[in-house]
Design a protein that fits this description.
Layout (H helix, E strand, L loop, with lengths): L2 E6 L7 E3 L2 E4 L1 H13 L2 E6 L2 H9 L5 E5 L3 H4 L2 E3 L4 E10 L8 H6 L4 E4 L8 H4 L7 E4 L2 H9 L5 E5 H11 L5 E3 L5 E10 L5 H16 L4
Parallel strand pairs: 1-4, 8-9, 8-10
Antiparallel strand pairs: 2-3, 5-12, 6-12, 7-10, 7-11, 7-12
Helix pairs in contact: 1-8
């Protein structure tokens, strides 16, 4: 049987890395449960998100956790059924007042930091209103937080659970706040390289997800 390769980076509580090694996380545990049910074998490899997508597109890696469906990605990925729902929030520096939307952030001349490779099509209308120097793209959420804390950027759009966990781990909950209104809600999937993984494997994962949901483990 083929060993399925999957990339990871530190995105607590989804994937938790210590000393360069993946040790825990909700997606990590879910994949482990799926392998027990399906008999599939998995090899985890450290890969940043943007590069992970490129490797999937080229058929050099097999699958990825926690991605939502886009038309562009569907050209080279097959998706599992959804297994969790994420909430996207606008996070801003606590010193900023009277900002509840991206449009307001840009109108006040502030800078937004986003993660390179992530899909932000759900806020494309708002992003199109920014000046050229008002949006910068960074390697990952940890770099975004570092820039936000130093006030080099004043806002970001992140998954609520992940970014709040990151803030707590750094003891910086008082420095950054989320606006009240959700920016977006999205269903998350496993996604498999069309070049590297047979559709039958996707079906096996779907069966395992359904079983875990039936057993109230998901």
């Amino acid at each position: 049987n083929k060993v399925l390769t999957i990339g990871y980076e530190h995105i607590p509580p989804i994937l938790i890395v210590e000393n360069g090694k993946l040790i825990a996380g909700t997606d990590f545990e879910l994949v482990r449960e799926i392998t027990k049910i399906s008999g599939c074998e998995v090899e985890w490899l450290p890969v940043p998100f943007a590069r992970h997508l490129l490797l999937l597109k080229n058929g050099r890696m097999d699958f990825i956790t926690s991605v939502f469906h886009t038309t562009e990605r569907a050209e080279y990925l097959n998706y599992s059924q959804p297994y969790r729902i994420v909430v996207k929030k606008l996070f801003i520096h606590s010193e900023i007042e009277d900002v509840q939307t991206l449009s307001a952030l840009f109108k006040k001349g502030h800078i937004l930091g986003l993660v390179r490779g992530y899909d932000y099509s759900y806020v494309q209308d708002e992003l199109s209103k920014a000046q050229k120097n008002q949006i910068i793209y960074l390697k990952d959420s940890q770099h975004v937080l570092k820039m936000l804390l130093s006030n080099r950027i004043q806002g970001t759009v992140e998954e609520e659970k992940v970014f709040k966990q990151l803030l707590t781990s750094k003891g910086k909950q008082e420095k950054i706040r989320a606006v009240k209104k959700n920016i977006h809600e999205e269903r998350m999937h496993f996604a498999f390289s069309k070049k590297a993984v047979a559709p039958e494997i996707v079906h096996v994962f779907n069966q395992a997800i359904s079983q875990l949901r039936s057993d109230k483990k998901l």
